[in-house]
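Title: Prediction job returns without error message
Component: structure pipeline
Severity: low
Priority: P3
Assignee: unassigned

Description:
Job completed but the reporter wants confirmation the result is attached to the right record. Sequence as submitted:
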Amino acid sequence: MQTFEVLAEPRRRTILDLLRDGERSVGELVDELALSQPAVSKHLRVLREAGLVTVRVAAQRRCYALRPAPLAEVDAWLAPYRAFWSDRLDALERRLDETS
């Protein structure tokens, strides 16, 4: 599954947002997301297979951490759109300055 397909699911994006703050166990993610443990585990499996998260086994717990490298693909795709909006906003600012 490609990175974009994985990120299309809102709950997976929420999981990544939570992992931005640091490693979390499956139980912690279940509590934060108010989803069942099997549902969270399924999303984590998809994220792990896409290379977006890593897992570490600590005794009886599985702890997940964000692996941001694959997000570079998304960032590269978004770069021209950021430039597009930046140019548009600069043009709007100039226009507003002219009319005031």
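Comment from assignee: result matches the submitted record. The chain is about 65% helix and 15% strand.
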